[in-house]
Design brief:
alpha/beta; 8 helices; globular; single chain
Length: 250
């Protein structure tokens, strides 16, 4: 599958890694549609890439919103060849905070919020997009952004569980739909130098992590794009988790 001329749907494409993926896909000749929670970012995307990017406001953790927005995208004539599930949030919180004077247990609200944003969204969007592809008798590729934390990262119960779920869905769907020509893969970045990473982690934590990473640096968003492009273009790659982590093992 050649990226040039490809129609790609990207969730959470308004900032961070998602925005970088959109920029690089467009520069490589793809046509892109974006599902993005922030309406202002949708406007900015459409203005930055006129005729190349359509951006649609959508909360991908809301099943009804996903259904309605995907129908609008279909009605506009955009039929994706590939989907990149990038939308999500990073959240750190211990199972029990022994220093808290109040409720010490992990917030149930935060648990549900992370699972909705990072796991439910992948299920909601992928199931509808793949169903539409099948109805059109198309083959397609689905890439989901996972994380090195899927292996278990202290202080990230919800985030680690959600990303482990993404990996499991990727392998399950590859087995279910491979015979129909669909391919599924996930990218598991390590610590990528983005605003969300720096807002989620303290400077001291980042310095400690860099000393543990064999390459001694945070990753660049470009490395994630190279992995995504490899998946899109390699027609014999499915059911795998591509680790982009600088050699770090949690």
């Amino acid at each position: 599958m050649n990226v040039t001329g490809l129609r790609v749907l990207v969730t959470g494409g308004g900032s961070g890694i998602g925005r970088y993926l959109v920029e690089r896909l467009v520069s490589d000749g793809a046509e892109v549609a974006v599902l993005e929670l922030d309406q202002e970012k949708c406007v900015a995307l459409s203005a930055a890439f006129p005729g190349k990017v359509q951006a649609w406001p959508c909360d991908v953790s809301d099943a009804e919103a996903v259904d309605a927005t995907l129908q609008s995208i279909t009605d506009s004539g955009f039929e994706p060849d590939a989907l990149i599930n990038n939308a999500g949030i990073i959240h750190s919180e211990p199972l029990v905070n022994m220093l808290s004077r109040g409720d010490r247990a992990h917030s149930r609200t935060n648990w549900q919020r992370v699972m909705a944003a990072d796991l439910d969204s992948v299920f909601f969007v992928t199931s509808r997009v793949v169903d539409r592809m099948m109805a059109k008798r198309k083959k397609g590729v689905v890439i989901s952004i996972s994380s090195i934390s899927a292996n278990g990262n202290p202080g990230q119960s919800a985030y680690s569980a959600a990303k482990a779920g993404v990996n499991a869905l990727t392998k399950t769907w590859a087995k279910e739909l491979g015979a129909l020509g669909f391919r599924f893969a996930a990218i598991a970045p390590g610590f990528i130098d983005t605003p969300s990473t720096r807002s989620a982690l303290s400077d001291s934590t980042i310095e400690r992590l860099q000393s543990q990473i064999p390459l001694r640096k945070l990753g660049d968003p470009e490395s994630v794009y190279f992995a995504a492009r490899h998946i899109l273009e390699n027609d014999y790659l499915t059911g795998t988790i591509v680790e982009v982590d600088g050699g770090l093992v949690l």
